[in-house]
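Worked example 2:
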Amino acid sequence: MTYLFWDFNGTILDDAKLCFEILNEMLIEEERPTVSYEDYLKIFDFPVEAYYAKVYDLNKTSFIELAHRFIQKYQPRSLKITLHEDVIETILFFKKQGIKNILLSASEVKNLNEQLKHYKIDHLFDEVLGTSDVYAKSKVAVGKRYIEIHQIDPKDCVMVGDTLHDAEVAEALGFKIILFSKGHQHPERLKDYPLIHQLKELRNMI
């Protein structure tokens, strides 16, 4: 392996509980039923618009309006939570072996860079790949463009994420995938893929 591609939300940043809390705040604002944390882990999905359609009335309030409202609530509060345990040590472990750590996120790149600088981890990544808007669409196009520009062999790449979408992205790009069970989807949903419960387990899997 030469390249290790990292998802950010739920894999590096421990933000699933925050997203769950904001979801319920917004459901109350929309006069919709709230959900339990376990429900959240079972319904969260990509594209985010499809996930929102499960809990909101998108005919009443558009996905675009809800997405912007979510980010307004999420971004400042995302700077007051924590990274997952062992993530910095694990990235440094691979960095010392000469492996390139690439961040591949569906987050809007300006917001992403703000978070990386706040947590003082921007220097850990050889490249930060985000999206141009806040609608959290697929990361496939972003990843594909990067590997084409740099003429990277997908067989040299492993991706670490926390959702079935990360597995779909890895498959589309030809990467090996390892999923992390403490992110945005219930571990039961991830059982068909190599699954870790602590990030330090990566050191023995790659």
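The longest helix spans residues 63-77. The CA atoms of residues 140 and 169 lie 5 Å apart.
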